[in-house]
Design a protein that fits this description.
Low-confidence stretches of chain A: 155-159
Oligomer: heterodimer
Mean pLDDT of chain B: 82
Helix content of chain A: over 70%
Structural class of chain B: alpha+beta
Order of helices and strands of chain B: HHHEEEEEEEEEEEEHH
Strand order of the largest sheet of chain B: 1-2-5-4-3-12
Number of strands of chain B: 12
CATH topology of chain A: Arp2/3 complex 21 kDa subunit ARPC3
Number of strands of chain A: 0
Radius of gyration of chain A: 15 Å
Distance between the termini of chain A: 15 Å
Number of domains of chain B: 2
CATH superfamily of the largest domain in chain B: Rod shape-determining protein MreC, domain 1
Largest sheet of chain A: none
Chain lengths: 159, 305
């Protein structure tokens, strides 16, 4: 795999996530680009790369916020692992499965962050209903964009 | 188990342990160090992202400025063309003037060059008395150098240098009682040209007093007051102010007086221009040196101040 390309995507994704959530969020609703990319990385390169990228992208999200340091890292690592694992059961190379994964992983991500808050901050870190409802849809749209720009190879080629 | 899956499980376990350690021990030294390290490495993404974003945010305004600059540039090019013609005309007149001065045996006026300086300080106790500027001996300033201020596109007389230090100088304003300057009042109307010479004196307040006007002179409010050619300190015909008040002629005095409002409020000036005497080498233009070889021979004593 092209490490240089992945490194460029890694840094550009962080910059894009920061820019989008800072300048283009509507009532706090902004796409979780790093989550979508973790799903896309898992679909394209498998769980190992997805977990590594997800962990460090999560650390980036953690240092941007003042809440639990490590929560996003753990959540995105699990997203990468789960997506990378299910690609053995279902074909995640298509757009539809990736949208479905992004949608479900967004909810899982929010719930996991909330639960980690319950355990480590003694309060459920609730993202709010607008974000909980609209962010998965937003992430699905972002998945389409990421898929168009970074379409994974067919599953058959990697089996 | 598949080898990749096995490795993935190990990696997951490692990342999970690391994340849980960070979550459960957030204030321990290793976690704080790791956080500092991560912040040091990843924070520039947000920082430079913000800077880059700001730069791109300025793009529309910059394009607008660029278009305005293009339009302004065209106007200025036209003005430069006209200025070139005016300069050629002025050079021609200067040569002619020098030749005529030489034929009449008149001394050439002192050649001076401008130095711009910022106003550093104004003493509240001597509000109408003096200001301090950030240019001095190192910039070529000398005692009695005239100081002008810019109002709109014109220059107006402000005062003269009375103390010079290495990089600063004190300017005595025309409104100071110690200031006096030969001046003439003239009407703005060209239908009824007139010119009355007098002595302008400071009064330690906003207005100045113009004395020694001819008792028969028909000075009127609104007449413009300029520096007189008889002043050796100031160049002639520099605007000073306007006549704001006419005092009734005193029967016991052989002159009349007028109050003059300065054209420039010195308290609002941020920059001033000082005319310093130009060195002879720099002052000697090739053309002028041929027609006016007697320039810079001597100094005219200051009679009006």
């Amino acid at each position: 795999m092209n490490l240089l390309k992945l490194a460029a995507v890694f840094v550009a994704a962080m910059a894009a996530q920061w820019w989008w959530s800072t300048h283009l969020s509507i009532a706090g609703v902004a796409p979780q680009l790093l989550l979508v990319l973790t799903v896309a990385t898992a679909a394209r390169y498998g769980p190992l790369w997805a977990m590594s990228c997800g962990f460090f992208w999560g650390l980036f999200l953690d240092i941007l916020g003042a809440r639990l340091f490590g929560a996003n890292a753990l959540a995105l690592t699990l997203v990468g692992f789960t997506t990378g694992s299910v690609r053995r059961q279902i074909d995640v190379a298509g757009l539809g499965p990736q949208c479905l994964l992004s949608f479900s992983m967004t909810w899982a991500y929010f719930i996991l962050i909330g639960l980690l808050g319950t355990v480590f901050a003694k309060t459920f870190l609730w993202v709010g209903w607008p974000v909980f409802i609209f962010d998965p849809i937003y992430n699905c749209l972002m998945t389409v964009v990421v898929f168009a720009a970074w379409a994974p190879p067919r599953w058959d080629h990697h089996r | 188990m598949h080898r990749e899956a096995r490795i993935a499980n190990y990696v997951l376990a490692a990342y999970t342990v690391l994340a849980l350690t960070m979550l459960s021990l957030p204030l321990t030294a290793p976690v704080l160090k790791l956080k500092a390290c991560v912040t040091y490495v990843l924070n520039p993404v947000a920082y430079y992202g913000a800077k880059g974003s700001d730069r791109f945010a300025d793009v529309p305004a910059n394009i607008k400025d660029l278009l305005a600059a293009d339009s302004e540039n065209r106007d200025l090019r036209e003005k430069v063309k006209q200025a070139q013609w005016a300069r050629a005309e002025a050079d021609s007149l200067k040569i002619e003037n020098g030749r005529l001065r030489a034929e009449l045996g008149l001394k050439a006026p002192q050649v001076r060059s401008p130095v711009w300086a910022h106003v550093m300080e104004r003493d509240p106790l001597h509000w109408y008395g003096s200001i301090m500027i950030d240019a001095g001996k190192n910039q070529g300033l000398e005692i009695s150098a005239p100081v002008l201020g810019q109002v709109g596109e014109g220059l107006v007389a402000i005062g003269r240098v009375v103390a010079v230090r290495a990089n600063s100088a004190t300017v005595l304003l025309l409104t100071d009682p110690l200031s006096s300057l030969a001046a003439y009042a003239t009407s703005a109307s060209t239908d009824n040209p007139k010119s009355f010479e007098g002595l302008l004196q400071g009064q330690n307040r906003a207005r100045m007093l113009m004395n020694y006007l001819n008792p028969d002179a028909l000075v009127a409010k609104g007449d413009m007051v300029y520096t007189s050619p008889t002043s050796a300190t100031f160049p002639p015909d520099v605007l000073i102010g306007t006549v704001a008040q006419i005092y009734p002629p005193d029967q016991e005095l052989a002159f009349q007086s007028a109050g003059v409002a300065p054209a420039a409020d010195a308290s609002r000036l941020k920059e001033v221009m000082i005319l310093k005497p130009q060195s002879e080498a720099a002052a000697e233009a090739p053309k002028l040196s041929q027609v006016a070889p007697e320039s810079q021979d001597g100094e005219t004593p200051e009679s009006s101040q």
